[in-house]
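Title: Request for sanity check on Pentatricopeptide repeat-containing protein prediction

Description:
We are preparing a figure and want to confirm that the structure record we downloaded matches what your pipeline produces today. Could someone re-run it with the sequence below and paste the raw structure tokens into this thread? We only need the token string, no images.
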Amino acid sequence: MASASLSSVSSPFLSPISPSKTLTITALTTEPFISKTIVCVISSSPSSLRANSEPKKRLWKEGEFPGISENSIPGTSKRTPIKNVKKKIDRKGKAKAWASTVTEALSDLIQKKLWIQALEVFEMLKEQPFYQPREGTYMKLIVLLGKSGQPQRAHQLFDTMVEEGIEPTSELYTSLLAAYCRSNLIDEAFSILNKMKALPLCQPDVYTYSILLKACVDASLFNLVESLYEEMDTRSITPNTVTQNIVLGGYGKAGQYDQMEKLLSGMLESTSCKPDVWTMNTILGLFGNKGQIEMMEKWYEKFRNYGIEPETRTFNILIGAYGKKRMYDKMSTVMEYMRKLAFPWTTSTYNNIIEAFSDVGDVKNMEYAFTQMRAEDMKPDTKTFCCLIRGYANAGLHHKVVSTAQLAGKMEIPENTSFYNALLGACASADDLMEMERVFTKMKDKHCKPDPGTYSILIEAYRKKGMHDKIYYLMQERPQLVTNKAEDDIDELMESLI
């Protein structure tokens, strides 16, 4: 007995048949490997359809489905068909789309480091029944709060995560520890470390200890550095190259060259923790910043002989060191060498060149480098404008300081402490103390924290004018940031009063 299939007619989403539409039907016989194709013309007239077809059924639109009739399920009572299924599906789809859009917004806010807005969006998402925050989202927010100087808020978020049933991991604890380390809260960071050691599933690893080591090195707590190394050895945690590079840089900045060379020698002899290009850059940067050009060049050759190849950052370090010592011939040689080996000039490359000329007030070459930088479609950063402002101030072109600051605003250059320090220094060099105080007020209004350099500029400007009362008020405002020179000035003030 032959059976026929008409897939186009059986589809529930069939659109109305147009008049005299030709359909192809394949009839399969019971005989093996025999089939024949019958081509017929179906008329769309109502009389012909009613004569040869079943009772007329509704043609469902896309996204809709027929309701279940009471006859379709044996032994069941009358059942109400499902209504508005398409609307429900649409609502669910819109909800998912909304959630996707908001989660993308959250990721964007985290990337832009806007922690207040990110927390607001996160709380709004958590109120939705379909959204379940994951460990990774908490991790990103805790890291963001740590970078934003909000370790207490990071701890609150961590506690909230635990209350909601998400089991903490070693990575989450390490992120929280890092938040305290970024704010130089060493005791709180060690408290987190002790909690981790008490939890079998959250034991500290090499990354945890590396973050703590960096915090101790930055705070010059080298006695804690040694104790952390001993603890790592007890726990059979081997320091990696990143860990050693961190401590290596700390020893160098503190002037502990014996410890630095001892650590570096151990790296050269190690089979699991060999020096890399970051080690090379760390050592070159240390000697370059101190102006010890011969030592820098000596170590450069040592690393090259060891088989470590330089990178763009390596050449930028050399350019910066030569520029500070006004060794323009060697600086040019490195720049040409980079071009020859197809190493791209970066923003840091141009910043080092601009800084070299700004330090001596060579406005012509400074502006030429800045023009070439923009011609290569390389966007300047905050350091670029700091160098330009200092260069114009050193050259006595204070009117150009104003236009440069305005250009930075037009280009939406981030204004940090270094940027305001450059402006304060320019105002001080022009003896415009009124404008200097306005810049200082704006700096605080922008929630940009002054640093010791800020107060050094202000105190030196006031000292030149004999304004000891101003120095005294600065001492009262932020005594922990005022330098020893400021304290000497205050002593002089007190003696004069006596």
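Thanks, this matches our download. The two ends are 124 Å apart (CA to CA).
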